[in-house]
């Protein structure tokens, strides 16, 4: 069982450590270091899970399971990547396992074609006219891998190589997901571009939330 490392001088010092330094300290038995890491990473992880899984309770459960798994595996973590990248990789596996259990994880990018062919749907949520509301809604329409790649790159700031490690795909595949997701979002969010003055009926509607990624 892990216990506090007697060599550090308190939480104030721990708070000044980087994520990887905290992880290394926790890996040799410092539970307080891991607690600081959890407090730092929990909002980031939950934010990611809520974009990957629409059910808030499921997202929270998966985030907690991810943190528990990283805690259990931390002594064997070889630091071949950053802790942050590794954490997202664990989160990705948790999310994929969740959808596989439901037997509804889409594996094809053909959904892009279907979405683009359908075009904008009638607006049924006029109060969701802000760009960020529209962005969140459209992100849910992206295939899971493309949504994950976009979020990890544009929001979490991971590199192409790091995203490839998280999703267990090639860097070329990551670039493809990013290119398609950006093109899709630009198309769907065109009414919010500067100078655009569409009618309400022309704006993409915020679709009902479901758990399909």
Helix/strand layout:
Blueprint: H1 11-15, H2 19-27, H3 31-52, H4 56-73, H5 83-102, H6 110-118, H7 131-139, H8 144-154, H9 160-167, H10 171-188
Helix pairs in contact: 2-3, 3-4, 3-5, 4-5, 5-9, 8-10, 9-10
Describe this structure in words.
With 213 residues, this protein is mainly α. It has helices spanning 11-15, 19-27, 31-52, 56-73, 83-102, 110-118, 131-139, 144-154, 160-167, 171-188. Helix 8 packs across helix 10 and helix 9 (160-167) crosses helix 10 (171-188). The radius of gyration is 20 Å and the shape is globular. The relative contact order is 0.12. The model is unreliable at 1-7, 105-129 and 199-213 (pLDDT under 50).
The chain-level structural class is: mainly alpha
Written as H for each helix and E for each strand, in order along the chain, the element string is HHHHHHHHHH
Largest sheet: none
Q: C-alpha Rg, in Å?
A: 20 Å
Give the overall shape, derived from the CA principal axes. Answer: globular
Work out the strand percent: under 5%
Q: How many strands in all?
A: 0
User: What's the mean pLDDT score?
Assistant: 77
Low-confidence stretches: 1-7, 105-129, 199-213
Terminal-residue CA separation: 37 Å
The helicity comes to: 55-70%
Count of helical segments? 10
Oligomer: single chain
């Amino acid at each position: 069982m892990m216990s506090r490392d007697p060599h550090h001088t308190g939480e104030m010092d721990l708070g000044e450590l980087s994520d990887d330094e905290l992880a290394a300290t926790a890996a040799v038995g410092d539970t307080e270091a891991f607690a600081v890491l959890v407090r730092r990473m929990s909002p980031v992880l939950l934010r990611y899970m809520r974009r990957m899984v629409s059910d808030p309770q499921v997202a929270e459960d998966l985030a907690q399971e991810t943190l528990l798994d990283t805690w259990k595996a931390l002594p064997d973590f070889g630091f071949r990547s950053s802790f942050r990248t590794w954490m997202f990789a664990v989160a990705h596996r948790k999310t994929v396992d969740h959808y596989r259990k439901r037997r509804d994880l889409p594996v094809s990018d053909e959904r892009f074609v279907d979405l683009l062919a359908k075009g904008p749907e009638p607006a049924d949520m006029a109060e969701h006219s802000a760009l960020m509301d529209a962005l969140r809604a459209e992100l849910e329409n992206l295939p899971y891998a493309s949504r994950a790649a976009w979020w990890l790159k544009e929001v979490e700031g991971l590199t192409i190589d790091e995203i490839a490690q998280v999703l267990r795909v090639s860097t070329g595949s990551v670039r493809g997901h990013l290119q398609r997701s950006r093109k899709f979002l630009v198309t769907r969010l065109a009414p919010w571009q500067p100078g655009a003055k569409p009618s309400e009926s022309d704006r993409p509607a915020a679709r009902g939330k479901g758990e399909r990624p």
